[in-house]
Amino acid sequence: MDKEYDVIIIGGGPTGMAAGLYASRGRRKTLLMEKAVTGGQIATTSLVENYPGFPEGVDGYELGQMMEEQAKKYGTEVIEAEATALEFDGRYRIVKTTEGDVRAPVVIVTTGAEHRKLGVEGEARLTGYGVSYCATCDGAFFKDQVVAVIGGGDAALDEGLFLTRYASKVVVIHRRDQLRASMILQERAFATPNMEFIWYTVVEEIIGDKKVNSIRLKNVNTEQESILEVAGVFIYVGLVPNTAFLKGIVAIDNAGHAPVNLWMETKVPGLYVAGDARADAARQVVSAAGDGATAAIAADRYLNELQEELRREEVSVANRS
Ligand code: NAP
């Protein structure tokens, strides 16, 4: 890793990889850092069915790897590091990382989001012992057992449907009687014999000594409580954007997203936020990749303007001397 780049991208999901692809094809010296597995959320998705160009769907991990390969092919340097702080030095933005400091006139933040926690008793203690946020990673451990899926969005149904391959029964627990998930997933879920729904219900507690054996539920209309015996609990109650290190640098809305304009520009010149970390995003793989490309195109324009400004300054200094 060098110390100085044209473009630094923080986050290695589809947004970051697309930004890297566009920036490096624009012949900008580009560094992309990822703290965990490249691919972001899709790395733990078994089958991505809504990314154009793959009519049969594509394994999420493989798609992430292909995106990385493509970005690297044109020169994006990909490193494993976590960005811990962002500082400013004139035209440069300095990214402090677990591997040392790096600087560039442009920083594109594509840190995405992580799974929201339910925040109930037993959740933290039993994570890894029956509580999971990744069906693709842990589904096979629950062969012929009953599992609960919490939530009513795309992730709950997508991952719940994946779990029906292993579990004897998948019980989806949702706090309303209307699902938020796309219609195609709802149709599939309702047609799957070993998928059941409990409506108007929330989880109050996850119970188990060394591993999960049941959950305590509450009907939100009647307040009536019940116990459901399950071996696993898969939690999909939304996402929390990874924007903590941007606080105090750019505006962050109540949900933790950074507002940007249509070019992914923040109010800070040279600083872009794209993908799941930004406000008003569609939060799909295809729109995430589109965000990354948009940010890189805007950044390229910004770098051209900076270069022109520097050239004018040099000419004016030369004329004065
Ligand atoms: P989401 O769309 O925000 O859905 C979260 C679900 O959890 C909602 O049904 C919500 O209920 C419920 N919920 C939230 N807090 C809760 C709580 N404390 N207790 C109980 N339930 C709670 O989140 P997501 O499913 O993770 O999806 C996030 C984004 O990624 C979306 O834009 C989605 O389209 C996208 N995504 C797409 C796919 C796909 O296309 N196959 C797959 C995964 C994710 P309410 O409905 O009552 O608010």
Please state the oligomeric state of the protein chains shown. single chain
Which of globular, elongated, flat, extended, rod-shaped describes the shape? elongated
How are the strands of the largest sheet arranged? 3-2-1-7-18
Judged by helices, strands and strand pairing, the structural class is: alpha/beta
Low-confidence stretches: none
Residues in helices, as a percent range: 25-40%
- Global mean pLDDT: 96
Total strands: 18
Query: What radius of gyration results from the CA coordinates?
Result: 22 Å
- When the domains are counted, the total is 2
CATH homology superfamily name of the largest domain: FAD/NAD(P)-binding domain
- Which CATH-level-2 architecture of the largest domain? 3-Layer(bba) Sandwich
Biggest sheet descriptor: 5 strands, parallel
- Helical run tally: 6
Q: Which small-molecule ligands are present, each listed once?
A: NADP nicotinamide-adenine-dinucleotide phosphate
Q: Briefly, what CATH class of the largest domain?
A: Alpha Beta
CATH topology annotation of the largest domain: FAD/NAD(P)-binding domain
